[in-house]
Design brief:
This protein is mainly alpha-helical. The protein contains 4 helices and 3 strands. Strand 2 and strand 3 form a beta hairpin.
Length: 141
């Protein structure tokens, strides 16, 4: 009985060693990062907006139609389009003429690098309230 137990233990450890050896190879093969082919979404958006002749800018719906006509899968990458628009507006490449967030109309910024600050309505300084005129005390009679 003592002879069979030592033989079984090395047989169990050998497959474990082989499995451990295979795992790093799989991890090394799967860790390759794939770079998408073609231009980025922001480049496609800027090209579509610059090609537009609209005076007030290109709307989100018209932008999606232009990207779809160029062969871009709009339905699959809808969120990337919105994120790209927001980033271009925050960088100052695009100006948002209507709407908020990713909705509305967009056109190219005439002065690149300068970000357009939203016009905030300044409230007039609060005037100090005049103390109420004190009535003469009627107890002074």
């Amino acid at each position: 009985m003592s002879e069979t137990a030592p033989v079984a233990a090395p047989a169990v450890s050998a497959p474990g060693a082989k499995a451990a050896a295979k795992k790093p190879k799989k991890a090394a093969g799967g860790s390759k990062a794939r770079k998408p082919a073609g231009p980025s979404v922001t480049e496609l958006i800027t090209k579509a907006v610059s090609a537009s002749k609209e005076r007030k800018g290109l709307s989100l719906a018209a932008l999606k139609k232009a990207l779809a006509a160029g062969g871009y899968d709009v339905e699959k990458n809808n969120s990337r389009i919105k994120l790209g628009l927001k980033s271009l507006v925050s960088k100052g490449t695009l100006v948002q003429t209507k709407g908020t967030g990713a909705s509305g109309s967009f056109k190219l910024n005439k002065k690149p690098g300068e970000t357009k600050e939203k016009a905030t309505k300044k409230k007039p300084a609060a005037k100090p309230k005049k103390p109420a005129a004190k009535k003469p005390a009627s107890a002074a009679k």
